[in-house]
Amino acid sequence: MSEISEKICPNCKTWSSYSVEERNCVNCGSLLDKNEIIFEEKKRKGLIPAFPKPRPFLEIKDSYPFLFRVVLHIVRPIYFTFMFIISAILWLVVWAAA
Length: 98
Fold this sequence. Notes:
The model has no long low-confidence stretch (mean pLDDT 84). By secondary structure, this protein is mostly helical. It has 2 domains: 5-45, no CATH class; 56-98. Helix content is 45%, strand content 8%. Strands 1-2 form a two-stranded antiparallel ribbon.
């Protein structure tokens, strides 16, 4: 659902329709929202840091030493099994309390 509203353009002072899809002025093409203008300026100047890509949980890389990879291969299944059991117990407790 996209809500359409009207905003006055800070650049050319004309009214334009504003929605999620249409964020620019119809007349001059500049951004209508002042917060977006500030965000784009900071982004252009490089003041906003890039977000790192999320890595897989307990990833086993080939660059790790052999012994560390062996330990991770042993610890990962134990950890996931433990978390599954704890989650199931918590779910049963919450279900019984309701």
